[in-house]
Amino acid sequence: MAITVTPPATARSHSPARSACAARCSATSDEEQAVSTVTAGPWSPKVYESRPETTAAAFPVAW
Question: Per-residue pLDDT averaged across 11-23, rounded?
Answer without folding.
Answer: 65
